[in-house]
């Protein structure tokens, strides 16, 4: 049995390839949510919609009707007939992915899949649309995290795919981001989601989840910046017993343009700590969005980040934060703050 790799690796030296079979095998909740259950989803009493969402999703997952609350003789709340699809509508950091993984684990299904939108569309690109339909036809459950509304072509492909699966009995659970030009705080996207998947909108029941970003509850509001000496020690300490990466921020950003986002998870495979030198603000939106996708995968894998230069929560310009991808950038900032504190 081979031991786990140790030492320092440069992510810019990695050019991961992923086969269709490997993509399918990876359609499970990320390690962070291996043990996610409805019981471990901690609701906030200040936001009753969290408990209401939890109750509805337990019912959706086959756990029966929500239990009545209140007095002994209080009439049980009538549970609406659940549609084949549920859409979890809420801001970042309210636990949508935790609940999505809880659905996956709770549904007593033989065939069920969990993946980000980008993983499903990458699979279509790798094996073709028809083979993807054949693969998923008859599946009991499809969980789609971060349903992308940015690309009309990809949105159409996914809408068409779920349109073929629902009639065969597949149930769906999804979350989404905010589409381009959706200005404002970008907290809720239900109407955008339903409009973009109009052909399948009637199959989804919207479940709204209010709340504050849980990642910001326990940490300061900014990403941690370390001095050069502290950075060197952190990378060396991690590399003594595991694998640590060491790259310049600019070098990583340039390399991400050469790797499909569906392969970013392989880019950080086996890495226990990500080191980034000389962080600087980004001036290109395409590069910024690729970095967001990278941060999502690093957060899924719960890999700590140590960085020098500018604070990582400052790399997105005010213009970017005021634009149509605002919600993506704010989610990435939230996750970067958490990972630099971990």
From TrEMBL:
Keywords: ATP-binding, Cell cycle, Cell division, Nucleotide-binding. GO terms for molecular function: ATP binding; ATP hydrolysis activity. One of its GO terms (biological process) is cell division. GO terms for cellular component: cytoplasm. InterPro entries: ATPase_AFG1-like (IPR005654), P-loop_NTPase (IPR027417). This is Cell division protein ZapE. It comes from Microbacterium invictum. The lineage of its organism: Bacteria, Bacillati, Actinomycetota, Actinomycetes, Micrococcales.
């Amino acid at each position: 049995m081979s031991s786990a790799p140790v030492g320092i690796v440069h992510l810019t030296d990695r050019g991961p390839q992923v086969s269709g079979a490997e993509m399918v095998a990876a359609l499970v909740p990320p390690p962070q949510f291996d043990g996610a259950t409805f019981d471990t989803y901690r609701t906030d009493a200040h936001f009753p919609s969290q408990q209401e969402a939890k109750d509805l999703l337990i019912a959706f997952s086959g756990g029966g009707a929500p239990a009545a609350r209140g007095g002994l003789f209080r009439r049980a709340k009538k549970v609406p007939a659940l549609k084949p699809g549920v859409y979890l509508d809420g801001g970042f950091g309210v636990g949508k992915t935790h609940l999505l993984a809880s659905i996956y684990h709770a549904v007593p299904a033989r065939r069920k899949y969990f993946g980000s939108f980008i993983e499903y569309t990458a699979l279509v690109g790798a094996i073709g649309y028809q083979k993807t339909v054949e693969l998923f036809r008859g599946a009991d459950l499809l969980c789609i995290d971060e349903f992308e509304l940015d690309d009309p072509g990809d949105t159409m492909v996914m809408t068409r795919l779920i349109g073929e699966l629902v009639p065969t009995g597949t149930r769906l659970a999804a979350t989404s981001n905010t589409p381009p030009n959706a200005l404002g705080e970008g907290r809720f996207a239900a109407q955008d989601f339903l409009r973009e998947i109009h052909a399948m909108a009637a199959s989804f029941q919207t479940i709204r989840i209010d709340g504050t970003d849980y990642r910001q509850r326990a940490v300061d509001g900014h990403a941690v910046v370390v001095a050069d000496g502290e950075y060197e020690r952190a990378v060396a300490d991690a590399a003594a017993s595991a694998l640590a990466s060491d790259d310049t921020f600019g070098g990583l950003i340039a390399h991400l343009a050469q790797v499909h986002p569906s392969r970013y998870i392989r880019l950080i495979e086996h890495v226990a700590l990500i080191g980034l030198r000389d962080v600087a603000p980004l001036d290109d939106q395409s590069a910024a969005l690729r970095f967001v996708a990278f941060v999502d995968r690093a957060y899924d894998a719960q890999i700590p980040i140590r960085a020098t230069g500018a604070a990582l929560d400052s790399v997105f310009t005010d213009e970017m934060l005021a634009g149509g991808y605002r919600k993506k950038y704010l989610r990435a900032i939230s996750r970067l703050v958490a990972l630099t504190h971990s």
